[in-house]
Amino acid sequence: MKNIDSIPKATIERLPLYYRCLDKLLTFENIEVISSKELGGRLGIPSTQVRKDLSYYGEFGRRGVGYDVHDLKKSIGKILGVNKTWPAVLIGAGNLGRALVNYEGFEKMGLKITNVLDVDLDKIGNRIGPITVESMKDLDKVVEEGNINLGIITVPASAAQEVADKLVRAGIKAIWNFAPTRIVVPDEIVVRNEDLAVGIVSLIYHLSWQDKLDA
Amino acid sequence: MKNIDSIPKATIERLPLYYRCLDKLLTFENIEVISSKELGGRLGIPSTQVRKDLSYYGEFGRRGVGYDVHDLKKSIGKILGVNKTWPAVLIGAGNLGRALVNYEGFEKMGLKITNVLDVDLDKIGNRIGPITVESMKDLDKVVEEGNINLGIITVPASAAQEVADKLVRAGIKAIWNFAPTRIVVPDEIVVRNEDLAVGIVSLIYHLSWQDKLDA
């Protein structure tokens, strides 16, 4: 396997797509072997790129036969680290925070939101599923006792940077930011800024072209 | 411009990434000219791919100079159709539905959730921001009167297919599905299945490797 730093970011971003696609093949379609062309075709990725992406991590599949879906899913799962459970603290017990705590799809990716914190006295003590909302003042204790490396931000944009600073000081190593603003953190902290609006654009693109073709 | 059907799906999926990146360059960084290498570098996409993607839609930028960020954003916005406003009906007034209605980032992508429907009598009549939750029984009327082409599903997985069927019968042309299940629709309907879990995987990947390197 190559040095992790030499693997292109775009390759790393595609691994979860492969993983989900393989998961769907097994769960919904009962497909057990797939070629790089078929796998790529389902994702809009050329087969040469599929093979190149996987080659960074070892040798998978058999020439002329394809990949064993179960084996490849397991291998990529290990590469991604989703075969383990990663506890996370979520900051901001609003609608989006509640929705994420109740979201059914995180478990298969290894994510477990174990704690929810807020500054709002009206929210502290409320329950979200199995979790009781705690005070933001308890952040350091929560992170240390839970051995938590992952923080999720679902506060308004105006509060996001302050929350990010507190997460970093508490020892968090990776931040998933849902607030629609940029946050600045030290280089060694990994941040993913989630923009829910990205998903709509391909739909609007299609609608827009239907309109033009109908006109 | 080439026939829309001949443009690779992966190219279409990258256009919103370019659009958002250009938007950020203007809004946060005051950058007015950018090369395909710099643009690609920010997104983990090779410069050759950036130029190829854009070439499907015409000629942009000047050799040796780069792209005018404002012009390119405007052009891509037009291609994507986000320069117009697209009304949408959202089905499912739970936490995720409420979060989406209140989400600040949709407007710049042209999405406007105009109606929220639910079957739950306890939710019908409640307000979410400026919207009053209506009964699912009013779907056909809402879609027709609002001239709505876009439906958003935020109901539990078990109810998603039934809702999708109703949206199709009501005349919806594109569906954004947040329920963690597959929905089956006629070929002419465009569906995007949103999986919120995808975003976490690149973070877990990094955490996982930090663990291995520290070990």
From TrEMBL, chains A, B:
Could you tell me where this protein is found in the cell?
A: Cytoplasm
Give residues annotated as binding NAD(+): G92, A93, G94, N95, L96, G97
GO biological process terms, alphabetically, are: negative regulation of DNA-templated transcription; response to redox state
GO-annotated cellular components: cytoplasm
Q: What are this entry's molecular-function GO terms?
A: DNA binding; DNA-binding transcription factor activity
Query: CoA-binding domain spans which residues?
Result: 81-182
Q: What is its main location?
A: cytoplasm
**Keyword annotations of the record:** Cytoplasm, DNA-binding, NAD, Repressor, Transcription, Transcription regulation
Q: Which Pfam families match?
A: CoA_binding (PF02629), Put_DNA-bind_N (PF06971)
Q: Which InterPro entries match?
A: CoA-bd, NAD(P)-bd_dom_sf, Rex_actinobacterial-type, Rex_DNA-bd_C_dom, Tscrpt_rep_Rex, WH-like_DNA-bd_sf, WH_DNA-bd_sf
Q: What does this protein do?
A: Modulates transcription in response to changes in cellular NADH/NAD(+) redox state.
Subunit composition and interactions: Homodimer.
UniProt-listed NCBIfam families: PRK05472.1-3, PRK05472.2-1, PRK05472.2-2, PRK05472.2-3, PRK05472.2-4, PRK05472.2-5
Q: Which family does it belong to?
A: Belongs to the transcriptional regulatory Rex family.
Protein name, as recorded: Redox-sensing transcriptional repressor Rex
